């Protein structure tokens, strides 16, 4: 039991690590699918990998032990008096066929429950968004929603309970049925003098004990069914296609790029093109900006640069290389992205800045923090760079989190810096500080800024106005104002 327990725990840890590793390497298209929700994946990893320990732990030992005893007793009966043994074996076959049918039925019901039940997912979503639920005072609504989710799952769970009871009834009655068959069926051999009463008694006990062994297997049966269901779900993750990353791994970029006639539609909506014949370019060290209405495709361009998706037509050339021919690791090491909502992980400020950087000196971290306007507030904290940021960086303000995210981008020394609405969620004072940091960060490297606040991009080398997934007009701030087009109307609307 001790070693079986160690085996099961080790197997569970191994499976969770493998599934997590597989999921982390999936592309963005996978996560866009409704069945790939974060709550479902977390539930599958925690619940179903736990159910799998029923396979290698002491329950399987229990199952094997009594199965072996059953075959030993039945073999003894067959060898001693094959006619009586055959009666017991026939009863065993009938019972096993019934149990196998119930096993299939129960497996199907449990798989259906795993597919249809959103109870665990809903609970996880509520716990992750507790603050929003409380702010909106909708606790009662979500309680009722959770209750409805439970009620919707009840008919299916009731069917599972009925099947479990049938399995229990069949297995618990086996010793009596087997005993009755053995003693009643063997009595005529005693009356005919073919079998002594002692031999009859021993054979009867042997067959009855075989029935007992089957009944003792019952407690392990539901766990093994759950393990079988869990295995189908968990190994479904292992069967996901690998994203093969075999591109160039040694190419050093200068930051020059040219986007030529690219087209793209999200996999979930192939009928609606988000990007249409789009062309933009920048020389090494240039600062360009993408502006336009919400939903025009600006953030999609960033996603294509990072290769979260691949364009259907056209090419994104980095220093003349098709960026799809660079390895993802090499590409993403040389492109840094600062988004509207910075993501910080539990741990210290230092750990968050150094995330994925390899060997970086403390002085390089301090330099990146100074460029990001973060060094002053970090060094004023009692624990400095060792300060814990908390879950999602909740111990810091929005501006502080954004500056740490900028420092994390700069410490990697990227050749291209992508800024996707990096200041839009900040108040005026924080925006000013962060904007100063972004201006410093953009110096000496190619940068693409996406923003609705046009005051921050007036000094860009080139501004592209995007509409319906393509470039409507482009030029410097002064040139676009002079042309009195879409960009000029946006500028007037913001009273610049």
UniProtKB/TrEMBL annotation:
Q: Which UniProt keywords apply?
A: ATP-binding, Membrane, Nucleotide-binding, Transmembrane, Transmembrane helix
Q: Under the GO molecular function aspect, what terms does this record hold?
A: ABC-type transporter activity; ATP binding; ATP hydrolysis activity
Q: How does it sit in the membrane?
A: Multi-pass membrane protein
SUPFAM superfamilies recorded for this chain? ABC transporter transmembrane region, P-loop containing nucleoside triphosphate hydrolases
Database matches in InterPro entries? AAA+_ATPase (IPR003593), ABC1_TM_dom (IPR011527), ABC1_TM_sf (IPR036640), ABC_transporter-like_ATP-bd (IPR003439), ABC_transporter-like_CS (IPR017871), P-loop_NTPase (IPR027417), Type_1_exporter (IPR039421)
Name the residues that span the membrane: 60-78, 84-105, 165-186
Provide the protein's localization: Membrane
Please identify the protein, giving its name as recorded.
Answer: ABC transporter ATP-binding protein
Q: Which organism is it from?
A: Pristionchus fissidentatus
């Amino acid at each position: 039991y001790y070693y079986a327990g160690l085996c099961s725990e080790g197997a569970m840890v191994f499976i969770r690590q493998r599934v997590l590793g597989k999921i982390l390497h999936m592309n963005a298209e996978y996560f866009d699918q409704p069945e790939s929700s974060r709550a479902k994946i977390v539930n599958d990893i925690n619940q179903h990998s736990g159910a799998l320990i029923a396979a290698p732990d002491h329950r399987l030992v229990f199952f094997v032990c009594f199965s072996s005893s059953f075959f030993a007793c039945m073999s003894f009966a067959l060898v001693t008096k094959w006619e009586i043994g055959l009666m017991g074996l026939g009863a065993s076959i009938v019972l096993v066929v019934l149990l196998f049918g119930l096993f299939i039925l129960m497996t199907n019901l449990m798989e259906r429950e795993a597919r249809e039940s959103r109870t665990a997912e809903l609970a996880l979503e509520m716990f992750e968004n507790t603050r929003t639920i409380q702010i909106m005072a909708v606790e009662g609504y979500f309680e009722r929603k959770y209750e409805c989710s439970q009620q919707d799952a009840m008919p299916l769970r009731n069917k599972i309970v009925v099947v479990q009871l049938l399995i229990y009834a069949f297995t618990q009655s086996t010793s009596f049925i087997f005993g009755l068959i053995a003693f009643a069926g063997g009595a005529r051999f005693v009356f005919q003098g073919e079998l002594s009463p002692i031999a009859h008694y021993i054979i009867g006990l042997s067959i009855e004990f075989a029935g007992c062994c089957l009944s003792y297997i019952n407690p392990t049966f539901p766990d093994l069914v759950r393990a079988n269901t869990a295995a189908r779900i968990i190994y479904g993750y292992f069967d996901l296609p690998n994203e093969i990353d075999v591109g160039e791994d040694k190419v050093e970029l200068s930051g020059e790029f040219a986007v030529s006639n690219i087209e793209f539609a999200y996999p979930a909506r192939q009928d609606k093109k988000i990007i249409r014949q789009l062309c933009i370019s920048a020389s090494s060290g240039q600062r360009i900006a993408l502006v336009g209405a919400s939903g025009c495709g600006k953030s999609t361009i960033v996603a294509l640069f990072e290769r979260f998706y691949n364009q259907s037509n056209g090419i994104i050339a980095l220093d003349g290389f098709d960026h799809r021919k660079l390895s993802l690791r090499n590409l993403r090491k040389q492109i840094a992205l600062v988004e509207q909502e910075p993501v910080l992980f539990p741990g210290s400020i230092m750990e968050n800045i150094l995330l994925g950087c390899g060997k970086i000196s403390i002085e390089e971290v301090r330099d990146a923090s100074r460029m990001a306007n973060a060094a002053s507030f970090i060094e004023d904290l009692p624990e400095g760079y060792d300060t814990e940021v908390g879950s999602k960086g909740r111990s810091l303000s929005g501006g502080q989190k954004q500056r740490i995210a900028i420092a994390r981008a700069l410490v990697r020394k990227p050749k291209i810096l992508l800024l996707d609405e990096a200041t839009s969620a900040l108040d005026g004072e924080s925006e000013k500080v962060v904007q100063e940091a972004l201006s410093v960060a953009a110096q000496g490297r190619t940068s693409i800024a996406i923003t609705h606040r046009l005051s921050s991009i007036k000094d860009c080398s080139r501004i592209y106005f995007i509409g319906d997934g393509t470039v409507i007009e482009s030029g410097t701030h002064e040139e676009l104002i002079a042309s009195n087009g879409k960009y000029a109307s946006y500028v007037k609307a913001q009273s610049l």
